[in-house]
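pinned: reference chain
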Amino acid sequence: MVKVSFLIGSGFSVPAGYPTTKNINKKLQRINASEICVSSNRQAWFLNDQPDPNSWINAEQRQFVQEFLEFYDTQVLKQGESFHYETFYDYYISAYKTGSHSEALHNFLKSFKNKYNKNFDNLDLQNLLGTFHDIFSQLLAGQLNKPLRRVHRCEPYGSECNAFLVLVGKLAQSSNVHFHSLNHDLYLENLALSDTMQGDLDDGFEELGSQLYVKKYDEYATYMIRLRRFTNKYESRFCLYKLHGSIDHYWCNFEDGFDLVKLPWTSGFLAHEIYKEFNRNGKYAYDNRSTDVVPDFLSGTTHKPNQYDRGPYYPLVHEHFKKNLTESKSLIVIGYGFGDLRINNYIEENFLTDSDKVMFVVDIERPENAYLDRPNVHFIEGGVSGMNTKTILERISSNIGNLKDSCGTVK
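pinned: its structure tokens
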């Protein structure tokens, strides 16, 4: 079967109620220490007017979040500049990773430590930034998590996803469909539970043979729930590649190496409760080791693309993306503003150099980029929920000549 590729950006999830970048910036630009909880197990979240169960601990860490954001807003941003969480991420992660601080940042960190009567040295200052990174990343991940019921979606679908799922269903009649997502949220995974995809979605993670578990506490019992770990297998009719990671990806470290697992966001599963099963002298035992409390997803306009070639996950999924672009005759881009130069280069080098290929750019408004001036690139207005699928299907059909002639207009 032929391949059809999708590239999905943040605009894809907005009709389903996920926050826009503007909303996220507004939420994260100013955070009062009283708005957040930082628990003893390093978990952090917005209280959203709920009482803080741990108000007497980690007060310094919460206060640092407030004052560091105030410092950035008043002393780092220049006049006329607006706060953007990805630019801010670049700012602090560079200082944390390199240990190189501007004079203003060094003075702020030193002043904060003195204010709270703490002895400090360079390591302590770095720890301030490291702890902030753990907290801020979890607060960001929380903004990208929208609780969704695990319910099978039956046709006719809701207006926010009907056009997309109908389009995918038509394409899947004669093609293998490959979704490449730049989003960290779990919306597309939820859409897989539908008449269109029937849960038949490979994301590179596999439960079979996994020795990794998470402990689940019930009211009267404790259970060990087997976790899916990354095996880089993509064999289903529908495949999903999270190019920037995901809010449910966590790294855990055991004596035989690192594993990347998917940790369910439901029912209170916690990263520090991940265990690995071992057979020792004929007896099974469960070891609990260090797990990163921060989910593995990429942020930062400059930091993000620098990670594409590093580690045991991102290089693999990016190679899949490039290979799928090369082998696909059609690419459907939804809600992506073409702001990532590395991603754009993949498209340019592995797809658009072939004039026989066709790319569709689906968005609410026509984006400003030179790609749309090309004869094999077509703009489809209306966004993910209002696009005219008939136009897409007819052009794909004429291009590859093997789609069924059963297209309908979906508004």
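why pinned: The chain has twelve helices and 17 strands. Residues 122-143 form the longest helix (22 residues).
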